[in-house]
Amino acid sequence: MISEAMTARLKPVQPGKASLVTVLDIGSTKICCIIARLTPQPEGKALRGRTHQAEVLGFAFGPSQGVNKGIITDLDAAEHAVRSVVGMAERNAGVTVQSLIVNVSAGRLSSETFAATVSLDGHEVEPRDLAKVLQTVNERSIRDERSVLHALPIGYSLDGHKGIQDPRGMVGDMLGVDVAVVSAETLSMRNIELVLNRCHLQVEAFMATPYASGLACLVDDEAQLGVAIVDFGGATTTLSVFKDGYLVYADSISVGGQSITHEIARQLSVSFEDAERLKTLFTSVLPGQTDERDLVPIQPVGATQDEAPTQIPRTTLTRIVRPQVEDILTILRDRMVATGMMDVCGRRFVLTGGGSELTGLPEIARRVLARNVRQGRPLGVSKLPTVAKGPAFSTVVGMLIYPQVCELEFVEQKASAGEGGKFGWFKHIGHWLKSSF
Q: Which residues, 6+ apart, have CB-to-CB distance to 18 below 8 Å?
C-alpha cells in the first residue's frame, strides 16, 4: 500500500553504533544499488554530523528501463530493472533488503526559503517557541500537489541579530528562523514508491538528487564557505547550493547528456548508440589544434556493413556539442542569478555526474559561470568498486551519507488517513525537537 506521506522520517544512525543501509539511485540511463555498513568514525570536517564511515558490502548497477527524465513511464519495465539490480546487490552482500533510501530528480524539483518570527516577550527561548515559529513556516510552505523532501533550518535570529546556531536558553523579544524547503510533485514520487512496493521493498526516505551529489563531493570547508554543485545526469541536470554547512537551494532542469547524444545523432544522421560512442570517445567542447586534421569515422543510419564509413573532422563534433553544453550552463546561471544564489555560492562550482566527464567541460564552465570550477568525485567510501569511483556515481554515494545528517532537518512522520495531501510535516514537531536537541 502506498503511504500518504512522502516524507517519512528516516531514523538517524546512532552515534558509536554500526548500521546497515541500502540506497538506490533510479536514473534515466542507469539504476544503481549499494548495500553498505556504516561504522563509527571521528566527525568529518565538510559537514557537521559526519559520524560514520561507509563500507560497501554489495554493489550493482544496470541499464535503466521504464524511466524517462526521472519519471516512471513503464511500471513493468521499471520493476524488472529495479529487481535485477537490487537482486545482484543482495547476492554480493549476502543480505536481503527490505527497505531503502531512493533519490528524486524529477517532479519539478524546487526549493524555497521561508522565514517567520514569534514574540518571546523577554523570556528565554524554549522548545515550544521553536515549535511556534516552525509551525508558522509550515503554514506558508505546504501545498496540496507537492511533498516536502527536506526542510533544513539554515539560521536563527534573535531581535534581528542573525547567525545564531542554537537559540535555546537565550533571552529576547523576537525569535526568527529561516528554513530551506526542498519539494517535489507528490504523484511522481508515489509512482516511484509504487515500483518499489511491487518489488516488495519499502521506502525509508526520499532524497533529492542534488542534495546527495553535494554530500558525496564536498571537501574541506566548501560547504561552509559556499559552493554550488552541478550534477550532469543522463536526462536531467540538477543544481544545489550549500552555505554554512547546509543545503540552501536545489533545482533541476530536464536536459542532460542524452540531449547532447540526440543532437549528435540528428545532425550526423547516425544511430543513438553510435552517437553515444562518438560523444564518449571523440568529443570535446574545446577545439584542439589538430581537430581539423583528425578524422572520425561514422556509419550513417541505413548504411550496410559493406559500405566504407564516412569520415568527419573532430571539429564537427565540437560545433555540435559546445552550443548544447553552453545552453545548459546558461540556464543554470540565469536561474541562480534570478534567485540570488550566485552570490550565496561564492566563487566555486563543483561539476559531477556522468556528463561532467565530457572533455573540456570545466574550462567552458569557467567562462560561462565566471567562477572557479573543479570536477567532483565521490569521497569517503571504502571498498567502492573502481567503476563506481567516477562522477557518475556521486548521487548513490551521497545517499550513504544521508542517514548521518538527516537529524539536522525536520520532516513529517507517516500521515494518518484523512490528511490527504496536506502533509502536516510539523505534526510531530515535539518528536523532532526531542531528537535534535
A: 37, 38, 39, 40, 52
